[in-house]
Amino acid sequence: MHKSVGHGLKRGASARGAHFIALMTEHTKYINVAQVAQIMEEWAPAWTAEPWDRVGLLAGNPKAEARKIWVALELDEILLKKALAANVDLLLTHHPPLFKPLENLRTDNPQTDRLIRAVAGGLSLFAAHTNLDAAPGGVNDALAERLSLVETRPLEEIKKGMAKLVTFVPEQELGSVKDALFKKGAGRIGQYNECAFTTLGEGSFFAPEGRTPYLGNPGGRNRVRECRLETVVPSAELGAVIKALYQAHPYEEPAFDIYELKQGPSGFGLGRVGSLPEPLKGKEFLELAARKLGATHGAFAGPVPEKVDKVAVLGGSGGDFIDRAASSGAQVLVTGEAGYHQGERAWDLGICLLVLGHFQTEEIVVLPWATQLAARIKASGFEAEVTPWTKGRDPWRPVFEE
Question: Which residues does 365 contact at the CB level (< 8 Å), separation at least 6?
Answer without folding.
Answer: 73, 94, 132, 138, 139, 142, 143, 315
